[in-house]
Design brief:
Rossmann fold; 5 helices; 37% helix; four-stranded parallel beta sheet; 4 strands; alpha/beta; 143 residues
Length: 143
């Protein structure tokens, strides 16, 4: 049975895969749906703790999971999970990667007016780079 690790994006946890994971299991896959560190806690606790976690911390946790499996798995990442899948694949053996809806890389222009309007409140906070973005405070009409 082939292992597949589903890596979610921001503002959710491993349970987001729901029916998608079930369908993969019916196809004969052994599905792993880890939650990124602190993402499975109640909302207020996540907001308090996740700002102090780095991408490397998330990748470390995922590398530990991948290396605990009996064979290299497929990695399937969504959004932020795409970046994490690539970071994991740089550090340990994997069978392959599937990247669904990756965030734009540094060489892709993504500085659009809608992005500015959506995230401006976050970027105007002092120390925003160490704080979690609260999705309840984003301007939802822009995403």
């Amino acid at each position: 049975m082939k292992n597949i690790v589903l890596i979610h994006g921001t503002w959710c946890d491993g349970s987001v895969w729901g029916d998608f994971a079930s369908k993969l299991e019916k196809m004969g896959m052994r599905v792993h749906t880890p939650s990124l560190r602190y993402h499975n806690l109640p909302y207020d606790e996540v907001m308090e703790k996740v700002g102090a976690v780095s991408l490397t911390d998330y990748a470390d946790d995922l590398v530990t999971l991948v290396e605990s499996l009996e064979e290299p798995p497929l990695l399937l990442g969504h959004s932020l999970g795409c970046l994490l899948a690539q970071m994991v694949a740089e550090r340990t053996q994997v069978a392959g990667m599937i990247l669904m809806g990756p965030a734009p890389t540094a060489d892709i222009f993504a500085f659009y007016p809608t992005m500015i309007r959506c995230f401006i409140r976050h970027f105007l906070r002092w120390g925003f780079w160490k704080k979690c973005t609260d999705p309840k405070k984003l301007d939802k009409k822009y995403y």
